[in-house]
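User: Structure please.
Assistant: Input sequence and predicted structure:
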Amino acid sequence: MSRYKVVVSDQVFPSIEVERELLAGIDAELTVATGDVESVLGTAADADAILNTYLPWTADSIARLEKCRIIARYGIGFDNVDLKAAADAGIVVTNVPDYSVEEVATHALALILASLRKVVIADGSVRSGTWSIDNFRPIRRLSTLTVGLVGYGRIARRIAAPLEALGARMIAHDPYLQPGPDLPPLLELHTVLARSDIVSLHLPLNDETRGIIGTDALARMKPTAILINTSRGPLVDLDALATALKDGTIGAAGLDVFDVEPLDAGRLESVPNLIVTPHMAYYSEEALAESQRKAATQVIKVLTGEKPDYQVN
């Protein structure tokens, strides 16, 4: 019998050989659970560690873990784990906050440029036989525009660099930062929304940020503004955004994440000037391997008495 039992609560990767090989080094057996929370608990109740992606870990389900020492999330967010309940149970919760910074920044930049340059509309126009720019006027020069970054962490900073290189002006809202020489102007959220031609969200999801972009926030934005969200879906009230795009409250939007996933495509019917992608901003082959390696490493460190790199509770 192996020294440790590690359970993958919801397997989403093409292979888990990266984790299996690393964990074998501490004599840990890796088991993949399937199904809903109840089914997973049937496998994971006696686990020493859990590797988790999307499965929710509430206070009730955490209480049923008999000897778990760590819940290691593969991703950046950790809103699907009750951090207090885990801490009360003596369970460390970790994430991997830096595994897909480049990928998410690149994807956000792609949505910004595609929305600004109206690439999707132009592609459809050409494919329909119309060779003209009249259907997608006006297009603004990027170097004349202001980009508002809501949240100014790793990903936002990665986006700011190429946008500034192309001449855009940066402003930001981040209540956890103090003004400094290496930061863009830090402003109140309502000011960022009102002044920005492009607003890109880079926030964690919590009680303060859930629904932060709703009807009132959208009404503060310029009628030509572009909204980008590659962060967390519930930051944006999708129904309010759809209405805002239909009635011209804002100009366009690019979304990779949604309040409910998979997205019901019917919610986007007849919504103009909207680019959507299927929660893929985090993805590259290199990013997946990094996430798997780093999540497994947190398990190894905790089980062998070392301090984890990314503890969040």
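The first strand starts at residue 4 and ends at 8.
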